[in-house]
Amino acid sequence: MKKKKIAILGSTGSIGTQALQVIEKHSDLYEAYVLTANRQADLLIEQARRFQPAQVVIADETRYAEVRDALADLPIQVYAGQDALCQVACNGELDIVLTALVGFAGLRPTVTAIRAHKQIALANKETLVVAGELVTQLAYDNHAPILPVDSEHSAIFQSLMGDERNEIEKIILTASGGPFRKFTLEELKTVTPAMALRHPNWDMGAKITIDSATMMNKGFEVIEAKWLFGVEADRIQVVVHPQSIIHSAVQFSDGAVKAQLGVPDMRVPIQLAFSYPERLASDFDRLDWYHMQPLTFEEPDLEKFRCLALAFEALHQGGTMPCVVNAANEVVNLAFRQERCSFLEMAEVIERTMQRATFIRKPSLDDYFESDAEARRIASEFIK
Ligand code: NDP
Fold this sequence. Notes:
Elements: E1 4-9, H1 14-25, E2 30-37, H2 41-51, E3 55-58, H3 64-70, E4 77-80, H4 82-89, E5 96-99, H5 107-115, E6 119-122, H6 126-141, E7 146-148, H7 151-160, E8 168-175, H8 185-188, H9 193-196, H10 206-214, H11 216-229, E9 236-240, E10 246-252, E11 257-261, H12 267-275, H13 306-317, H14 321-337, H15 343-356, H16 365-383
Parallel strand pairs: 1-2, 1-5, 2-3, 3-4, 5-6, 6-7, 8-9
Antiparallel strand pairs: 8-10, 10-11
């Protein structure tokens, strides 16, 4: 059987490296055909030597010569810059494009891959947060399926298997609640980046780990779920489930609830996004039913986790508002990690940016780029 050729946009990150583990395990089925990184030249070089892709991209152009020279003895095409990400994402040989890069930077390459009719394995949720309506319509028009990699959306997708034609009454989107679930508002005033970067259940990249601590990540997942499954926000219920065993669930019109459970391990949804509709064998950890912690459920506290409320608000407003929230969030997320802004100030800056930014109800792709740039400028001013 012909191997599926996969592009991993963001191969040096948390999702990217786990995707390479899946490809290595199933090297009879998959081939890493394109690998890309932002700045981590060393790791990209190491991955390229090991997986021998046809093309690599280092987005940071200042690292280009280093990557090119290190791979000069191999038949690998080396490119640099953001435009090169789009160029490789639509390579005619590719079967699947895994969007594992972080933030707004994922939008343009994802759109390019969709226009080239590629199957998208979507980890980069920011693409759907920013431009969900446009991107899902484009995917529909170009017959480019979007398979979710986010564990919650993969769980929803799996719960819908065999029930595709039945009405969804409600999506139950589970959330771990992050490291500060039990903190008071007073305690949240003084939390540090180091504390926020210690997620109780998942080992992820820095940006999403902070988003999980503020619960903006869950807000983004609500937006992502709306566009992936065509369900309005008032039918998406966020339920805090600290053990992260139930990855999410769907309630149908007869009251039946179907969920997907498992040990938290991103390789499960990554592998399924590659192999669907088949399931491949794995040696990943299994649930231990006799020794599992009791599964518990709570309502999220929207006063403490204001970012979640802001994401719902942005979804209700529609247009460019989710794009504004995403841009402001990228600015404050970085500022918090660099200790330029406190934990609670993050939501304040996002809210003030939402009030100040230009609102466009029916944006074009170009409008999203302008909206993103404007919101970043505004949020940065508030932080100063
Ligand atoms: P990481 O920060 O670990 O990795 C991000 C990857 O993207 C790296 O390869 C990085 O390169 C590259 N990258 C970063 N910025 C740019 C840029 N401007 N241009 C090109 N490449 C860039 O992130 P994660 O793997 O944690 O997350 C990736 C995406 O998947 C995010 O959208 C996240 O929300 C989503 N996701 C992640 C989960 C997880 O478990 N990690 C779970 C569910 C969703 P370099 O290494 O060189 O900096």
